[in-house]
Write a structure and sequence with these properties.
By secondary structure, the protein is of the alpha+beta class. It contains 10 helices and 9 strands.
Length: 229
């Protein structure tokens, strides 16, 4: 994947692509999280195949796209007709395709994501000021998506933190089953301690996120029962 969906880590796809080209290896990357957030030029990345998901870049749900470099041959997913360049039988939705195209045209402007990055960093600073060493950043501080903030509230359960937030859409990276904490495969692979990983919450900012919304979330977190006890 070009960028991780949980902690936002940007993988060195360009370097990997150069190695793949050197050895004549066909190379695919999943860019669902990165398109519209960071540059994703296929020639710069050195990929032969690249997939995107429409709903990740403000297109309608239910549509995506696969870039296939000229000369790459693929076995059809569904046989029986010549749709999708002979790769997948079945009539495609013109409305969804048009929506995806319009969204892709709009998100070529990455300036809004730089504003999101600044907001994301201000958000992280506010959490550090409020919670000190009770909040931990998961993932790298630099090489990550501009809109992703994955943090852990140490010693509490992420789901309990979310339960204390009103009107805030966020997600956790761990699950609690019968009193046992189960970390996501990503956090487990990062060797995040259970005491830290159980309190993980992923916040995702968008192109329309405002300073007021960030301040509101910080204020709600400060009052959340799981964090104020």
């Amino acid at each position: 994947m070009h960028a991780n969906n949980e902690v936002g880590t940007i993988q060195p796809i360009e370097e990997i692509g150069a190695i793949a080209q050197e050895h004549g290896t066909c190379f695919h990357t999943d860019a669902a999280q990165s398109v519209g957030k960071i540059p994703t030029r296929v020639d710069t990345l050195g990929v032969d195949l690249l997939t995107i998901a429409g709903h990740k870049l403000y297109a309608p749900k239910g549509v995506g796209a696969l870039y296939v470099r000229s000369g790459v041959e693929l076995e059809p997913l569904i046989h029986g007709a010549g749709h999708e360049g002979g790769r997948r039988a079945g009539t495609e939705s013109a409305l969804l395709a048009a929506g995806l195209g319009a969204a892709c045209a709009l998100v070529q402007d990455l300036a809004p994501m730089e504003r999101a990055r600044a907001l994301r960093d201000r958000f992280w600073g506010a959490l550090q000021d409020r919670f000190g060493d009770r909040v931990v950043l998961n993932g790298p501080s630099e090489h990550r998506l501009p809109n992703t903030l994955n943090v852990s509230f140490v010693g509490v359960i992420g789901a309990d933190v979310l339960a204390g937030l009103d009107g805030v859409a966020a997600s956790t990276g761990s699950a609690c089953h019968s009193g046992r904490i189960e970390l996501s495969p990503v956090l487990a692979a990062m060797a995040v301690p259970e005491k830290v990983g159980m309190g993980v919450v992923r916040f995702s900012l968008g192109r329309q996120t405002t300073d007021t919304e960030i301040d509101t979330v910080v204020a709600q977190l400060a009052r959340a029962p799981a964090l104020s006890a």
